[in-house]
Write a structure and sequence with these properties.
Order of helices and strands: HHHHHHHHH
Largest sheet: none
Number of domains: 2
Number of strands: 0
Helix content: over 70%
Amino acid sequence: MSNNQHIERDQELLEGLANNDDKSLETIYSDNFPMIYRMVLQNNGSEADAKDLFQESVIILYEKVQEGGFVLTSKLKTYIYAVCRRIWLKKLQGQAWQGSITEELEAITPVEDTIEEAEKRDEQYGIMEKAMSHMGEPCKTILEDYYIHKRSMQEISEKFGYTNSENAKNQKYKCLMRLKKLFFAQYK
């Protein structure tokens, strides 16, 4: 989608939001919530935190649009991300265990760079999921057990009937190389 198409689409969504159009709100949600959800989860939050945060950002956007004269100077996605990021950083700053988060921290990475990185990472995750779905057994389960479920090589060895954990470790390595080959074949 070209930049002009983004601007037109975003403007239509804002007009729909100003007119209480449910379809515009649904589109804003479906286009942007997954990105906010990942940001919150990667920064010590939960799904409920992400929902609250996103709802708060949409309310802010709605109020700005209702006031009239609101001019969007970036992509709508960038604006929502920036608002959510600022609110989330302030929330984390208020939590004693998180420590102090200063204004300088917020300025370290421009929001546009963060969004581009998140989109690229999402693409890579999608390719990795596809590669994992093409893995046969026992490789898929071995890798999931080790990397996702954090099972030890001894547990994996017992589960699959390997004579010792070294054999399971060798099998995991072979599976990992196979996954890497599948991933890069699709990534190019």
